């Protein structure tokens, strides 16, 4: 029981900093751009039209929010809050706050769960100490905490892509069919939450086709693995966004618009996003020092074990290159990279503390030095998260 206390404390803190100030701006709408879109589409789905008629986002998050509206309605009917569906829909217009808050709470839950999934992933890859340090860094990663307050798709997509990555990590060791199927299914769900999360297929291809797995395999077996993975990913995507296929013309038009939007930019032309994402999205949203340490940790991992290093690094590198080439620059685009940087930073901190303990000929000090260094690295983020949540909790 005692061995679970550090993780429980980190998860409790992660949940607390994501819940604090989550009702910011309410009952006013448009406190966060795009939440009104989620509310409007989810409300129409609740009314019975399962076709979202909106494909700038995939549909999974919208269906989840609509399901919460349905649960809220039936609970309200049981307790006499709503006399009819018409009364419920009227309430959703007059008192929109609870409906926006439900979408935000999905992000809170997803953000907190991501901390736990990162712990599981890091423990599978490394050890308990590295996993706890990585979880601590993500618990207080400013960009991730900030967007966990918003009832939009980004943080939930990051959860599912990290779950998919966890199954790929397991697959690299086990070659288990269940891990293969779950990796594909959750990759499909990630892409069905936010389209660009589809890049999480790259670590899977490294394991299935490249030398990412330590066990040799025939090309026939590799082909079957790719077919199984791709098929289950497609199933996951279409199950959660069925009207992509059922209303193909509308989906294709939305996809063409989004491609144009990425190429031409949004509002003020910031140029391509390389520098903005490096110095603002990640530099400010994660911290320049943790960012440098995270990159250093990935380099350490590549040097120690190149197979495992590429497995961890291929997604964040490819994702940054893909989104950095766009002229549409929003800091939230870098949210999926943050857990991988937290993992890299944890590797660097543990390696540095171990090296220092060896140099001092005090190997028993390694764990204590690791936590001292980890808290030192995390401290500025803890302060910034506290200031952010304090600001969000104030009446505007």
Structural commentary:
It is a single chain. By secondary structure, this protein is mostly helical. It is built from 17 helices and no strands. The longest helix is centred in the last third of the chain and has 31 residues, at 274-304. The chain is globular. The chain starts with a helix and ends with a helix. The relative contact order is 0.12.
Overall pLDDT, averaged?
91
- Give me the number of helical elements: 17
Assembly state: single chain
Helix content: over 70%
What structural category arises from helix and sheet content?
A: mainly alpha
Taken as a percent bin, the fraction of beta residues is under 5%
Largest sheet: none
**Straight-line N-to-C gap:** 43 Å
Given the C-alpha coordinates, what overall shape results? globular
> Strand tally, please?
0
Strand and helix map with partners:
Layout: H1 5-19, H2 35-46, H3 60-78, H4 85-94, H5 97-125, H6 128-139, H7 142-147, H8 154-174, H9 177-191, H10 201-208, H11 219-240, H12 243-246, H13 248-264, H14 274-304, H15 306-324, H16 338-359, H17 366-393
């Amino acid at each position: 029981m005692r061995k679970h206390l550090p993780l429980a404390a980190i998860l409790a803190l992660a949940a607390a900093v994501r819940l604090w100030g989550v009702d910011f701006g309410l009952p006013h709408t448009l406190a966060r751009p795009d939440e009104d879109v989620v509310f409007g589409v989810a409300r129409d789905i609740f009314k019975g039209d399962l076709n979202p008629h909106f494909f700038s986002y995939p549909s999974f998050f919208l269906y989840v929010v609509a399901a919460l509206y349905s649960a809220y309605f039936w609970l309200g009917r049981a307790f006499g809050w709503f006399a009819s569906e018409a009364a419920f829909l009227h309430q959703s217009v007059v008192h929109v706050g609870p409906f926006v808050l439900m979408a935000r709470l999905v992000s809170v839950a997803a953000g907190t769960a991501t901390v736990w999934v990162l712990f599981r992933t890091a423990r599978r890859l490394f050890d308990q100490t590295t996993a706890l340090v990585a979880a601590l860094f993500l618990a207080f990663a400013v960009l991730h905490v900030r967007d966990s307050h918003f009832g939009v798709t980004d943080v939930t997509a990051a959860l599912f892509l990290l779950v998919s990555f966890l199954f790929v990590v397991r697959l690299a060791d086990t070659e288990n069919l269940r891990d293969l199927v779950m990796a594909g299914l959750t990759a499909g769900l990630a892409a069905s939450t936010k389209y660009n999360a589809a890049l999480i297929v790259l670590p899977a291809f490294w394991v299935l086709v490249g030398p990412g797995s330590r066990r040799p395999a025939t090309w026939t077996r590799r082909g079957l693995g790719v077919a199984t993975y791709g098929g289950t990913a497609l199933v996951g995507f279409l199950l959660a966004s069925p009207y992509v296929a059922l209303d193909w013309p509308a989906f294709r038009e939305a996809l063409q618009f989004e491609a144009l939007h990425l190429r031409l930019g949004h509002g003020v032309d910031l140029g391509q996003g390389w520098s903005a994402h490096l110095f603002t999205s990640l530099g400010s949203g994660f911290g320049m020092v943790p960012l440098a340490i995270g990159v250093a940790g990935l380099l350490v991992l590549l040097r120690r074990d190149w197979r495992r290093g590429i497995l961890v690094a291929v997604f964040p590198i490819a994702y940054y290159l893909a989104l950095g080439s766009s002229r549409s620059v929003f800091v939230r685009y870098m949210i999926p990279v943050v857990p991988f940087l937290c993992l890299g930073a944890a590797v660097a901190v543990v390696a540095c503390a171990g090296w220092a303990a060896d140099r001092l000929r005090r190997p028993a000090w390694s764990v204590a030095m690791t936590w001292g260094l980890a808290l030192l690295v995390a401290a500025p983020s803890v302060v910034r998260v506290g200031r952010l949540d304090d600001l969000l909790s104030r009446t505007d």
